[in-house]
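Long-time lurker, first post. I've been practising inverse folding by hand and with some scripts of my own, and I keep getting stuck on stretches where the structure tokens seem ambiguous. Below is the full token string for one chain I'm working on. Before anyone asks, I'm not after the true native sequence, just a reasonable design that respects the backbone. If someone could post their per-position residues I'd love to compare against what I wrote down in my notebook.
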């Protein structure tokens, strides 16, 4: 039996729902809603994976970010299997190699790049006068 697979990003936070007070309850509800939606479409839950993803950091840098994904599978449709078998079947009667499963991906939201501890990524707290500074700022800076 052949399967097709679908990989979706795991939820990162639970949706706010009346009656669910703790973050764990909200997260569990969000996860169960996602799994029930996929099951209604015929997808069977297989596993959760954490996979590395190399992403751009700044202009030339790269950083590795780990993405949490959920893997679902369902039996490949009979029509798709018969079409694949006809395309792969060799003419000399030799046994055809197994076709690889079809995998679908959904876009994953990017997570922010990790920051160095102690590094300041904020704008300076004091105003620096310059050519575009207002008259009040120049007066304060001159004093």
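-- Answer (accepted) --
I ran through it position by position. Result:
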């Amino acid at each position: 039996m052949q399967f097709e697979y679908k990989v979706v990003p795991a939820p990162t936070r639970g949706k706010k729902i009346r009656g669910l007070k703790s973050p764990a309850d909200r997260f569990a509800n969000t996860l169960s809603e996602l799994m029930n939606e996929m099951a209604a479409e015929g997808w069977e839950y297989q596993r959760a994976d954490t996979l590395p993803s190399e992403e751009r950091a700044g202009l030339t840098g790269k950083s590795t970010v780990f993405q949490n994904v959920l893997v679902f599978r369902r039996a490949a449709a009979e029509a798709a299997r018969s079409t694949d078998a006809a395309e792969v079947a060799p003419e000399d009667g030799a046994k055809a190699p197994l076709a690889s499963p079809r995998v679908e991906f959904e876009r994953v939201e990017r997570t922010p790049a990790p920051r160095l501890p102690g590094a300041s990524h904020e704008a300076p707290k004091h105003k620096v006068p310059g050519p575009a500074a207002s008259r009040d700022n120049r007066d304060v800076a001159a004093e």
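A couple of notes from the structure itself: Residues 3-114 form one domain. The chain has three helices and four strands. Happy to go over any region you disagree with.
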